[in-house]
Write a structure and sequence with these properties.
Layout (H helix, E strand, L loop, with lengths): L1 H12 L5 H9 L8 H26 L7 E5 L10 E12 L3 E13 L10 E4 L9 E7 L3 E12 L6 E9 L1 E6 L4 E5 L1 E6 L5 E6 L5 E3 L1
Antiparallel strand pairs: 1-2, 2-3, 3-4, 3-5, 4-6, 5-6, 6-7, 6-8, 7-10, 8-9, 10-11, 11-12
Protein name: Lipoprotein
Keywords: Signal
C-alpha cells in the first residue's frame, strides 16, 4: 500500500501537465518485453475491472434524474469472480440522451486471482486530476445497448516498483450483464493499453465476450 500512496503522490505532483500520461510514459509497464500470455493477462484484468465500474455506474444511474451528479461507494456488491473490490468511490453525472459521465473521486482498489496481481492491490483511476480526458462514458443506444468508452490509469503494486498502464477505448464496447452469474463483461469493441515510452498493444472483446490481446 505504501507504493500505491507514492504513486498517488507522483500523479498529484504532475497535475497540470497531463499527469496520467506523464506517469505512464515514465513509469509504465515495458510492453515490448511482455510475452503474449502476459499481454493477455493484462487485457483480461483491465477489461474485468472496467466492466465492474461500468456496471456499477449503469446500475446507480438508473435512479438519477437528468442533470444530477452523485457520488457512490464501490463495495463487495460490485465484486465478481474475477475482481474483488476493496474500496473506491465514483462520481456520476447524468446527462441528456441517456448519457452518463463517470469519474473516480477515490480510485477503485481491487485484487484478482489473475497472475498479473500476485495477490497485490491494483487501482483503477478515472480522476480529472490526472488529465481532463480521464473518464468513462456510458451511452444507452436504441435496443437498450449500453455503449462504454473510457480512458483510465491502472497501478499495479505487485512488483518491487509500482507499475502503471493506461487503457483507452478506440471503438466503444457494449456492456453485458449475466443475471445468473452476476458477472458484467464487454462485447464487441476495441481498446488499447499504453505503457512506458508510449509502447502500446490493442485488445478487443468479441461478440461472445472473450477478451483478445493483439
Amino acid at each position: 500500500m505504501k507504493k500505491l500512496c507514492l504513486a498517488a503522490m507522483v500523479a498529484t505532483a504532475l497535475v497540470g501537465c497531463n499527469a496520467g500520461d506523464e506517469v505512464v510514459e515514465h513509469g509504465g509497464i515495458d510492453i515490448n518485453n511482455l510475452s503474449q500470455t502476459q499481454k493477455q493477462e493484462y487485457a483480461e484484468l483491465t477489461a474485468d475491472a472496467l466492466a465492474v465500474i461500468a456496471h456499477a455506474a449503469d446500475d446507480f444511474s438508473n435512479a438519477m434524474a437528468v442533470g444530477e451528479t452523485k457520488q457512490f461507494d464501490l463495495s463487495a456488491n460490485n465484486t465478481t469472480t474475477t475482481i474483488l473490490v476493496a474500496k473506491g468511490q465514483i462520481e456520476i453525472e447524468k446527462q441528456e440522451n441517456q448519457k452518463v459521465i463517470i469519474h473516480t473521486t477515490k480510485a477503485m482498489e481491487f485484487t484478482s486471482p489473475n497472475a498479473v496481481t500476485n495477490g497485490e492491490v491494483i487501482s483503477l483511476n478515472f480522476s480529472e486530476n490526472l488529465d481532463k480526458d480521464y473518464n468513462m462514458t456510458i451511452e444507452t443506444r436504441p435496443g437498450s445497448i449500453d455503449n462504454v468508452s473510457f480512458k483510465g490509469m491502472l497501478i499495479n503494486t505487485a512488483d518491487s516498483d509500482a507499475k502503471y498502464w493506461s487503457t483507452e477505448s478506440t471503438n466503444g464496447l457494449e456492456l453485458k450483464y449475466n443475471e445468473n452469474s452476476k458477472i458484467p463483461s464487454f462485447i464487441s469493441g476495441d481498446a488499447v493499453i499504453t505503457g512506458k515510452d508510449n509502447q502500446k498493444f490493442n485488445w478487443s472483446a468479441d461478440s461472445n465476450g472473450d477478451i483478445i490481446a493483439k
